[in-house]
Amino acid sequence: MSRSRLNGDIFEFSFYHYLVTQHGYTFFDEWSETKYTKLRQKTPPSKRHNISTLEDNLPFKLSDYNSMKLLRDLANTSNDLELCNTISGKALGISLKNNNLSLKHPRARSFGNLLDAEYVRQYEELNNSWYAGFEEVQAETFSECRKSSISSMYNDFTSLLKKHIVACNAQSLVNYCCSITDTNYIIKRNKNGTFTTYQNKIDIGQLSINVIPVSDNTFHIKLSNNLVLSFRIHTASKRVTKMLSLKYDVKYVLSPLVTY
Distance between CA 216 and CA 159 in Å, rounded? Predict the structure, then answer.
């Protein structure tokens, strides 16, 4: 597990633990309790974050809810949990970020589910071509490949995605990355241990999409409401496999997030 993912898990558990111990939250379902238990087993008290100042800048009251639903990594949400009121049925989506505003980390091929079948077909052709090239030079890991080759590979895959984003206007892709909803808050733990809360009030409607090249492995999507997303492709595994392990790191560059 990467250090950033480990630190993210520690923050997530610290927040969940705070809800249980300080506000008496129960678990909405068996999945939530199981996930909480697994996180507790790998997060000793010495590693847990101090969450006591978190409520100072929340635009909502934790006491208005009494249960938490921990969410699976589903395609239709970037939330980590929902705060639930089991009496009124009210729910509030929460996304927890440890010193970053990353949105998604999808596999490059998976964007075909949001674009079109032609993207998948061309992606697989491109994948097979690059894999054959790596086989030809007997490269078993990406570190054995020339940097110029890796840059060219990144450029090929990002060019393919950019082309299909333009062709499809990609409203569904942007919705997927942003998880558009009025009942969503992002709580970010900053490097100095303080917290910043954002409300996700992004409404893309039928806004126009502009694709902006940045480098061989990065491009931006700019919408006409000034939302800008960064897409950076990278290898997710050291080894060269038949289906190349490529992922995108999707982050906000500029957004109409409301800050508290």
Answer: 9
pLDDT tens-place string over residues 163-221: 988 877 667 777 777 765 545 788 999 989 899 988 866 665 556 778 899 999 999 98
pLDDT digits (tens, 9 = 90+) for 116-159: 889 999 999 999 999 999 999 999 999 999 999 999 999 999 99
Of the chain, the end-to-end C-alpha distance in Å amounts to 32
169 and 83 in a single domain? The answer is no
Q: Tell me, what's the pLDDT at 185?
A: 87
Q: What is the DSSP letter of 45?
A: G
Number of other CB atoms surrounding residue 88 within 10 Å: 10
φ, ψ (nearest 5 deg) of residue 73 = -80, 75
70 and 110 both lie in a single domain: no
Of residues 252, 246, 136, 124, the one with CA closest to residue 196? 252
One DSSP character per residue, 19-86 reads HHHHH--EESSHHHHHHHHHHHHT--GGG----TTGGGG-SS-GGG--EEEEPP--TT---SEEEE-T
Of the listed ranges 9-23, 25-39, 207-221, the least confidently predicted one is: 207-221
Report the alpha-carbon distance of residue 151 to residue 217 in Å, rounded.
Answer: 7
What distance in Å separates the CA atoms of residue 124 and residue 133, rounded to the nearest whole number?
14
Q: Which of 245, 212, 228 is nearest to 101 (CA)?
A: 228
Q: Which two three-digit tokens encode residue 141?
A: 């890991």
Residue 243, in any domain of the structure: yes
143 and 76 housed in the same domain: no
Radius of gyration in angstroms for the set of CA atoms belonging to the chain, rounded to a whole number: 20
Domain boundary among 83, 98, 113: 98
Residue 85 has pLDDT above 80, yes or no: yes
* Residue that the structure tokens 């086989």 belong to: 135
